[in-house]
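Worked example 3 (structure in, sequence out).
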């Protein structure tokens, strides 16, 4: 209680202080940011920032809560070489005792601006790293996120703070960005003055092997695939795939009925030496994918096939419309993440909808996708203690939770369980309206409106609350949506929300062969997924990742930290393990696995005779194929 009160007091004080006029800065003149990215191949950025200032105390912030990352992930440990000066004379700075992202200094008399120079220390990206600290720089390409190299003065909100930025990329490299360009020459560019908010929302993708491909319809705002790859060969795109991305843009227009950007760029950093992930922006997205993402047929079926549609949806859901709790005035105030079930969960659903409607997933792949999600959701036994809305509230730390014990813990489940939840909503709207209405109607109402953005301004943000979502659902079809959503957000039932699949005309069944999608994901994630049979997920090296509570593996006593060595008396391989599991339906002997547990060896006998077991979807006879209609392309006449 005391802690809570102290926090509330500090928060009110913070609000009060941020409302005061800033004494030591000048709102009229823009900041200048000079980013020297010529050392990208050695993963080092240099930056010089000129900040208008008036004499007196000044606080500079390093961005901490980066929009889209939903956590305090600004990589402060990689900020280096900070030197501040005024009129060429060094100024002393001191880090705040409590807020480690704040630096205090005193601007001397007779000075109207200060200069800060700093470096950002990149490194080889590792798993389980924050997005911002997951460096995206290789010998051949880089994504330059301005938040990595920016200090900004306390006081003026980033939406009002004007910035003029300048960038220099390695010799011979090209670049692409949503930022409007003032001039460019030989790998250097100066951008038009924009708000700090827009600058930080507009990364620059640069690379030695670079290509920009216009996609989408001829009318309306332009769209581009902006590619930088570790090889020239990876920049090729065949006509089929290109036409699927064309359709992605068209189908998004059909779904939302409006666009709230001047242009949109899918920035793709394509390398096997970066962490594969993505983050949304208003007029672009920062997508990090394998080197052969566009040229290898295999990658089309991988998880990342829906990455671009997902990030594209965020331009409407997350950027144009944003939960009030995630809309903060600067990058220092904590975000309240409870509404991520809408921000991310709905985006996951609509990302899948557009992946299906654009043809990036065939109908078969979309069925396999939902079969895997339904089975995964059943295995998330943490749902019996942690309701879905606790995974959203806890998101800032859950993003960094280990994968071990994942099904007991529950992680950021609001993505895939969100897809199930919104499928439930969509099919219910269709059922209650006799097929006349669908979730598309909600999208047009909720995400519609005037999309024009006058030059020199930032794209608009229209905030919303839980009640706004309920009201718009009721405008589409009258129902007790408040209770409907509340139940699903607070439930601790063992059973996940699979009503949408049933209403969509499908059911989950288990067969002896894995789907093509599961095989592709095992190969992409380098793991062996036997969760539907013996309840075990292993890394390729045999290390235990997860054990499903109540499964044979769980009852036998297997745990993380152990490493599979042998099946009975023979060294294990993935194929032998899968064969041995399949054989349990016939064999008299039980499945016997030998593990090493931190230098000690132990043999476990699994009480399991169900054979190979993998999830698939099968038509539920009697109902219409609503699922197929949702994920099929739509054409409106209006
Ligand atoms: Zn997202």
């Amino acid at each position: 209680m005391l802690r809570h009160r102290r926090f509330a007091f500090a928060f009110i004080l913070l609000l009060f202080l941020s409302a005061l006029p800033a004494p030591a800065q000048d709102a009229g003149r823009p900041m200048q940011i000079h980013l020297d990215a010529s050392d990208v191949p050695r993963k080092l950025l240099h930056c010089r920032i000129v900040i208008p200032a008036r004499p007196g105390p000044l606080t500079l912030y390093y961005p901490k809560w980066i929009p889209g990352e939903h956590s305090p992930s600004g990589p402060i440990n990689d900020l280096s070489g900070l030197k501040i000066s005024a009129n060429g004379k060094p100024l002393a700075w001191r880090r705040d005792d409590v807020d480690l992202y704040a630096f205090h200094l005193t601007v001397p008399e007779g000075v109207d601006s200060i200069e800060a120079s700093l470096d950002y220390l990149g490194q080889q990206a590792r798993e389980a790293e924050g997005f911002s600290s997951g460096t995206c720089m290789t010998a051949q390409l880089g994504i330059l996120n301005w938040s990595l190299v920016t200090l900004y003065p306390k006081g003026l909100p980033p939406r009002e703070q004007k910035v003029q930025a300048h960038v220099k990329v390695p010799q011979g490299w090209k670049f692409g960005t949503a930022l409007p360009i003032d001039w460019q020459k030989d790998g250097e560019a100066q951008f038009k003055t924009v708000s700090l908010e827009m600058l930080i929302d507009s990364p620059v993708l640069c690379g030695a092997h670079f290509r920009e491909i216009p996609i989408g319809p001829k009318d309306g705002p332009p769209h581009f695939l902006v590619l930088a790859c570790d090889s020239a060969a990876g920049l090729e795109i065949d006509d089929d795939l290109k036409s699927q991305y064309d359709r992605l843009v068209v189908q998004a227009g059909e779904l939302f009925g409006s666009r709230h950007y001047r242009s949109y760029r899918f920035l793709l950093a394509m390398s096997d030496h970066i962490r594969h992930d993505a983050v949304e922006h208003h007029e672009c997205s920062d997508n990090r994918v394998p080197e052969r993402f566009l040229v290898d047929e295999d990658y089309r079926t991988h998880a990342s096939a829906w990455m671009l549609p997902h990030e594209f949806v965020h331009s409407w859901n997350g950027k144009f419309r944003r939960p009030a709790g995630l809309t903060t005035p600067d990058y220092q105030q904590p975000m309240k993440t409870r509404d991520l079930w809408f921000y991310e969960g709905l985006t996951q659903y609509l990302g899948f909808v557009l992946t299906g409607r654009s043809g990036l997933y065939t109908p078969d792949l979309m069925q396999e996708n939902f079969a895997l999600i339904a089975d995964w959701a059943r295995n998330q036994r943490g749902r019996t203690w942690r309701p879905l809305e606790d995974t959203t509230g806890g998101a800032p730390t859950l993003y960094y939770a280990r994968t071990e014990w994942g099904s007991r813990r529950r992680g950021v489940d609001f993505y895939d369980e969100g897809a199930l939840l919104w499928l439930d909503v969509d099919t219910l709207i269709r059922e209650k309206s006799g097929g006349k209405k669908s979730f598309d109607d909600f999208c047009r109402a909720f995400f519609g409106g005037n999309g024009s953005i006058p030059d020199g301004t930032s794209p608009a943000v229209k905030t919303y609350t839980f009640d706004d979502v309920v009201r718009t659902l009721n405008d589409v079809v009258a129902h007790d949506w408040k209770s409907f959503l509340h139940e699903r957000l607070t439930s601790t039932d063992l059973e996940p929300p699979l009503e949408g699949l049933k209403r969509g005309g499908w059911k989950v069944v288990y067969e002896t062969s894995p789907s093509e999608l599961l095989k592709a994901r095992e190969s992409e994630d380098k793991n062996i997924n036997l969760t539907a049979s013996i309840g075990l997920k292993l890394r390729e090296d045999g290390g235990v990742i997860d054990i499903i509570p109540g499964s044979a593996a769980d009852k036998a006593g297997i745990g993380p930290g152990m490493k599979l060595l042998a099946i009975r008396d023979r060294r294990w391989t993935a194929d032998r393990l899968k064969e041995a599991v399949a054989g349990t339906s016939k064999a008299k002997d039980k499945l016997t696995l030998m593990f090493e547990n931190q230098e000690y060896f132990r043999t476990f006998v699994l009480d399991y005779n169900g054979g190979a077991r993998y999830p698939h979807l099968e038509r539920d006879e009697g109902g219409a194929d609503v699922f197929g209609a949702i994920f099929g392309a739509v054409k409106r006449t209006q």
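Notes: Residues 44 and 625 are 53 Å apart (CA to CA). Residues 2-19 form the longest helix (18 residues).
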